[in-house]
Write a structure and sequence with these properties.
The chain is an alpha/beta fold. It is about 45% helix and about 15% strand. The chain has 11 helices and 13 strands. α1 runs parallel beside α2 and α1 crosses α8. Bound molecules: nicotinamide-adenine-dinucleotide. Nicotinamide-adenine-dinucleotide (NAD) binds next to α1, α5 and β5. This is NAD-dependent epimerase/dehydratase family protein.
């Protein structure tokens, strides 16, 4: 298949690109190398992809509606996985308009361009944040719009636009809700990579509520889930891609202390915008896609710590 990954220079996109090349797909990426985190890091991720196989890299801003539509008209993609976005919950509290641009307007541009150019299958990288704060495992139908941050509102809004354009153009739509993805090359603003950078530099780490829990999901499992979703048979489906096994932050700290026994941890108060718990019910993805997360948290963390030690050297 000829597959386009938007945001292909990013954490999830670059891992996916490598996996799709190994599976002998034709892979193109669109990315404008945003400055949300280190641009050199994204260039490095693209170099990693190029070592696996021939990838076509288009560097432009998907916020440019005309350029996006012209690009799609000039290329025939069998499937588009839309991962380009401005991520991060806390920065969305101080800069909400950027999230409307990057997470809603960019998504609308990709959806319209896909529809106009006749892309048969559009997949959208959504987030567990659309569930807001809920106790217990969440199934796909549990998203009720009661979100906790502008980032989450933008993701929920983008999902609505996905449904609107699916209905207008009739392409196959798959919405994938990712739950806190971690692993080698993890996004440097997220908790585990941030903690590891600080610990490797001998700095203390700040934690905003030890009783919070996250459904940490290893990058390879997410990439497998996305690859399986290319075979989805329904016309318009939503799937949770998580581990189904939430980890309390105090447990994360305990495990990190086994690698960094002298770690200093500073307890801070809970931050507005965050949710207290995430916990995926992954039965639908298991049953319909054959998705089975394989990397347990202790093993995933071990691999991530090992990678971080090498990378920081
Ligand atoms: N990492 C997670 O835990 C997680 C969890 C839930 C959802 N998601 C979603 O998954 C997707 C990928 O996340 P990630 O962690 O790989 O993030 P990332 O920041 O590493 O990757 C996003 C990529 O999109 C590119 N991009 C952003 N705006 C663009 C634009 N206007 N034009 C072209 N390129 C643009 C960036 O340069 C970047 O390379 C995002 O939609 C994110 O919201 C991620």
């Amino acid at each position: 298949m000829n597959i386009l990954i938007t945001g292909g220079a990013g954490f999830i996109g670059s891992s996916l690109a490598k996996s799709l090349l190994k599976a002998k797909h034709d892979v193109s990426i669109i990315d404008h190398f945003s400055t949300f985190y280190n641009v050199e890091r994204k260039k490095e991720q693209v170099n990693q992809i190029k070592r696996i196989g021939p990838v076509v890299v288009h560097e432009f801003d998907l916020l440019d509606e005309e350029e996006t539509i012209v690009h799609f008209k000039n290329h025939k993609y069998d499937a588009v996985i839309h991962l380009a976005a401005l991520p991060g919950v806390q920065p969305s509290l101080t800069n909400p308009h950027a999230y409307i641009d990057q997470d809603i307007k960019v998504t609308v541009n990709v959806l319209r361009a896909s529809g106009i150019s006749g892309v048969p299958h559009v997949l959208f990288g959504s987030s567990s944040s659309v569930y807001g704060n809920q106790d217990g495992p969440v199934s796909e139908s549990f998203a009720n719009g009661k979100v906790k941050s502008p980032y989450a509102a933008a993701k929920a809004g983008a999902e609505s636009f996905c449904h609107a354009y699916q209905s207008l153009y009739g392409f196959k739509l798959t919405i994938l809700r990712f739950f806190t993805v971690y692993g080698p090359w993890g996004r440097p603003d997220m908790a585990i990579p941030l903690f590891l950078t600080k610990l490797l530099n001998g700095e203390s780490i700040n934690i905003y509520g030890r009783h919070q829990s996250r459904d940490f999901t290893y990058i390879d499992d997410i990439v497998n889930g996305i690859a399986l979703a290319f075979n989805q048979t329904g016309q318009s489906e939503i799937y949770n891609l998580g581990s189904g096994k939430p980890i309390r932050l105090e447990e994360l700290i305990r495990l990190l202390m086994t690698y960094f026994p002298n770690a200093s941890v500073v307890d801070e108060t809970f931050r507005a915008g965050d949710v207290r718990h995430t916990w995926s019910n992954i039965e639908k993805a298991e049953k319909e896609l054959g998705y089975v997360p394989e990397i347990g948290f202790e093993e995933g963390l071990r691999r991530t710590v090992e990678w971080a030690k090498k990378y920081h050297n």
